[in-house]
Design brief:
The structure holds two protein chains of two kinds. Helix content of chain A is 46%, strand content 17%. By secondary structure, chain A is of the alpha+beta class. In chain A, α2 runs antiparallel to α3. In chain A, β11 and β12 form a beta hairpin. Chain B is globular and about 65 Å long. Chain B is mostly helical. Helices cover 67% and strands 0% of the residues of chain B. In chain B, α14 runs antiparallel to α15 and α15 packs parallel to α18. The chains are: A alpha+beta, B mainly alpha. Chains A and B meet through α1, α2, α3, β7 and β9 of A and α5, α7, α13, α14 and α15 of B.
């Protein structure tokens, strides 16, 4: 029995040491080194601190397990009776203080660096919504929404029958990526429209909360071209796990070309909102907008999730009349997750989604909403 | 039985009610302690069942079992039930049972209030758990109830807030009772610096409770009026500030985490000397370290919210203040090891859990130190690294200490020894699987998995599967704990008054099981009875 006890203790000591050592190496590889000067600093800092606490842990556990193995009654060890030593207590108060100072110095330096948000070459405003992001390039006057891509969204439904492993970048792909130039100092302004979100791309080395009514600042300068993925990091409701972030860092030339193409499509969109659309066009486009913007709450078949998310259609007809529907979509509903889409989407997107919602699950032909109607209401 | 003691008080003892009324109307500290402990065990299994749902959903990528909203209800309720229903009542139950026995008092100072502070709890948790069956479901905004998200839910928020108020009232009354008992009812000669460490840590914890539970009450009341009466404390559109809530909440929340751990320090400081057969090392510094930790807990709250966008000076202050906590905590751990050093150790189940506590709580403490480093915190915050950290300090910290305490004092409560073989199996089973459960979560967090998500990218699959397997096995193993307690209550080897060879203190001078009424005549305490003499060498 004595022998087995010792064996167990020895195994436990071994296991702790193995786990910790494994931790140092595995974890060291696990936190991304990142692609900014700051993220590399954080990675260094993380490794330094992890190293220090690992050494502390090993020393403390070694002392304890030595005692456990040697000073045991079953070996006939007679207890000492000391219960105080001022010298020892001064030593193990002073040494930790010194270790803390050693840790605080680099931490302070890196933090001060992170907080210098001046000298930005471009500014991007990030707004969190339930459950997607909006990016506004303040100098280039580009703005768009970025939501999880459709493949992930279909696969993640309960009983979808799709294996997540078959979906490329499952939960980490978006419809519109945040395209930025490399080697450019970018200042981000973060806020939110409804609840608190948190914008996090591990490769950039930080996360920052996006809070309604407040504007937070952060900066980055990406040193390598590539695609970097992240997620919302602050619980923001039922689809918190489904609002990814994808940053695509490209060369300055590629970025300029991308800006030109975005401008073109924005001009096209302005043109689109002015013209008259056919029912078929609205239904086609509406199906896409509805799936991206509305289906998460009101469900793909419009049945909603009562009582939090009302049904849009019941017994083969839309619930409520069009005027009320328009009002809620454009202006939102206080105290619920329904936000105002008026300033958020293009008039033709809203018109199409509304047309789709009034027709898709109806037995008879429903109303058609034209983009121009929405544009007028938005003006009013 | 203590025929002698009861004979003196045959008056009220003869009329002691039986059956349900006995438990409903009891004002006896031991019976109320038992009620608290049973309640806590029930809540531990309810909260544990919720954790099983969480781990089952996270076993593989994709949504298989529950929808995201219900998943969020599970994470929220798991935390509320475990913190307010399992850990806190367990500590209050232990205080009820042991504080009077340890200081030589006949009962708690305020026995009727004691009854009330327990009986509020079943109602509070009925209200809280009932929300799961309401149309709009339970709270789903995390246990921190951050607005504006928490204000989006249905009317169940009102039930949750009322439940929190009731828990707060219960905690405050319990804390007042413990302070009144410790300060007024110590036996002659039981000076403050002769008190056992468990009594000391509870005294300090009780002050923390009185200081911060009203702060929580204020915060959730403002949520209530924002949600139902049109105020705008936390509504930016009305001139309020969502971040204000976080400051208030964590001003409560950080002392709260020490409320969950200081009594655990006390328990471990009782058990390690007993099984090392050597007095506690550095008793006085243990008391001062506890008091320092309690003080520091009031000035570190914003380290829970480094990413909300604070001024540089504030972040530096909260980083340094948080790091300083490592010093008194380190003193405690070194003192425990110095207590074992050159002792004559034996490894009964309470000692195993206490040693498990020292090792695993230290791991949680060290990851806590990492979290204090602000630039790195920008990466760690709101990831599974944090989840791993606080489960190491709460499960292998607080819960391990509670289990150690139960095994340590169970013979005193029941008069029977528990099954030592099963106890050891329980310890090793739990310790292996709890590490399989929580250690991989460090890696998940560092690799970029946010917390509170019902589904994850496929690169996180392996570690989540390992973690879930650990979770199921650990959870399953706790049924053994319930069985061991049940078996010990039913019978077993007779326990002596002393129970443990190396145990010292007044609680071991009364028979096992401790009779309903003890210390009707106060014992005389001098250095020979005092538990932890801080002998100067």
């Amino acid at each position: 029995m004595k022998r087995t006890n010792e064996l167990i203790v020895a195994l436990a000591v071994l296991a702790v040491i193995v786990v910790i050592t494994w931790g140092v190496f595995a974890v060291g590889d696990n936190m991304p080194r990142g692609v900014t000067a700051y993220s590399k600093d954080v990675y260094q800092l993380h490794n330094t601190i992890l190293g220090i606490v690992t050494v502390i842990g090993i020393l403390v556990f070694t002392a304890m397990f030595t005692s456990v193995v040697v000073h045991r009654k079953s070996k006939g060890y007679k207890p000492a009776s000391f219960s105080h030593s001022t010298k020892a207590e001064i030593i193990w108060t002073a040494i930790p203080v010194l270790i803390l100072v050693v840790m605080a110095v680099p931490a302070t330096r890196v933090l001060i660096d992170m907080e210098q948000t001046g000298g930005a070459e471009m500014n991007i405003k990030i707004t969190g919504y339930q459950w997607l992001w909006r990016y506004e390039y303040l100098e280039d006057e580009i703005s768009f929404f970025s939501a999880m891509d459709r493949a992930s969204n279909e696969a993640r439904q309960i009983g979808s029958g799709i294996n997540p492993r078959d979906v490329e970048n499952y939960l980490l792909e978006v419809d519109n990526r945040l395209v930025v130039p490399v080697n450019t100092r970018i200042r981000f302004l973060l806020t939110a429209d409804d609840v608190i979100h948190s914008w996090w791309v591990p490769d950039l080395g930080w996360k920052r909360d996006a809070i309604p009514g407040m504007v937070n600042e952060a900066w980055t300068e990406i040193l390598e071209e590539g695609v970097f993925r992240g997620q919302c990091a602050e619980l923001c409701g039922k689809d918190h796990g489904f609002m990814p972030i994808v940053v695509e860092a490209v060369s300055r030339e590629a970025y300029d070309a991308w800006v030109a193409s975005q401008r073109q499509s924005m001009a096209d969109a302005a043109h689109e909102s002015a013209r008259l659309w056919t029912r078929a066009e609205l239904m086609n486009h509406g199906a896409n907008v509805y799936q991206a913007q509305c289906a998460a709450c009101h469900q793909p078949d419009g049945s909603g999730l009562e009582p939090a998310f009302p049904a849009l259609a019941r017994d083969g007809r839309p619930t409520g009349d069009l005027a009320a529907h328009l009002d809620v979509v454009l202006n939102g509903r206080d105290g619920t997750a329904m936000t105002a889409f008026g300033g958020r989407l293009q008039p033709q997107d809203i018109a199409a989604a509304l047309t789709y919602a009034r027709n898709a699950w109806s037995d008879e032909e429903g109303e058609v909403v034209q983009p121009s109607t929405i544009a007028e209401l938005n003006q009013g | 039985m203590s025929q002698e003691t009861t004979a003196h008080h045959s008056d009220h003892h003869d009329h002691h009610p039986t059956g349900l009324a006995r438990w409903l109307f009891t004002t006896n500290h031991k019976e109320i302690g038992t009620l608290y402990l049973i309640f806590s065990l029930v809540m531990f299994f309810i909260g544990g069942a919720m954790a099983m749902v969480i781990r089952a959903e996270l076993f593989a990528p994709g949504l298989q079992l529950v929808n995201p909203d219900f998943f969020n209800q599970m994470t929220t309720m798991h935390a509320l039930v475990m913190i307010f229903g399992a850990v806190m009542p367990a500590f209050v139950g232990l205080a009820n049972w042991m504080v009077p026995l340890m200081i030589g008092a006949p009962d708690m100072a305020l026995p009727r209030m004691n009854n009330w502070s327990f009986w509020i709890l079943p109602f509070a948790f009925t209200l809280l758990l009932a929300t799961l069956f309401m149309p709009s479901g339970g709270p789903a905004s995390g246990w921190t109830l951050y607005p504006p998200l928490s204000l989006q839910g249905g009317n169940t928020l009102a039930f949750v807030i009322l439940a929190i108020h009731l828990m707060g009232i219960s905690s405050i009354m319990g804390a007042i009772n413990i302070i009144a008992t410790i300060l007024n009812m110590r036996a002659p000669g039981m000076t403050l610096l002769r008190m056992p460490l468990f009594v000391w840590t509870w005294l300090i914890t009780a002050f923390l409770l009185i200081a911060v539970m009203p702060v929580l009450a204020g915060a959730v009341t403002m949520l209530l009026t924002d949600r139902f009466f049109g105020t705008s404390f936390f509504n930016a559109a009305g001139g309020g500030d969502p971040v204000l809530y976080q400051h208030i909440f964590w001003f409560f929340g950080h002392p709260e985490v020490y409320i969950l751990i200081l009594p655990a320090f006390g328990i471990v400081s009782e058990i390690i000397p007993t099984f090392s057969r050597k007095p506690l090392f550095g008793y006085t510094s243990m008391v001062y370290a506890t008091a320092s930790i309690a003080f520091l807990s009031f000035i570190v709250w914003a380290h829970h919210m480094f990413t909300v966008g604070m001024p540089l000076g504030a972040m530096l202050f909260f980083m340094y203040a948080t790091m300083v906590i490592a010093v008194p905590t380190g003193v405690k751990i070194f003192n425990w090891i110095a207590t074992m050093w050159r002792g004559s150790m034996s490894f009964e189940t309470p000692m195993l859990f206490a040693l498990g506590f020292v090792v695993l709580f230290t791991i949680g403490g060290l990851s806590g130190l990492m979290l204090a480093i602000v630039p790195a915190n920008f990466q760690y915050h709101d990831t599974y690294f944090v989840v791993a950290h606080f489960h190491y300090v709460l499960v292998t910290g607080a819960v391990y200490a509670i289990m150690a305490a139960v095994y340590y004092w169970l013979p005193k409560w029941t008069g029977h020894m528990y099954d030592e073989r099963l106890g050891k199996i329980h310890f090793w089973w739990s310790t292996i699987w709890v590490n399989v459960l929580f250690f991989p979560q460090h890696y998940l967090g560092l690799a970029g998995m946010p917390r509170r998500i019902p589904d994850y990218a496929v690169q996180f699959t392996e570690f989540n599967m390992i973690s879930s397997i650990g979770g199921f096995m650990y959870g399953f193993g706790q049924l053994l704990f319930a069985f061991i307690i049940w078996k010990c209550v039913r019978g077993g080897q007779k326990a002596t008054a002393q129970v443990w060879e190396g145990a010292r203190g007044l609680e071991w001078t009364v028979p096992s099981p401790a009779p309903l009424h003890t210390f009707d005549t106060p014992p005389l305490v001098d250095d020979s009875v005092a538990v932890h003499k801080d002998q100067l060498t």
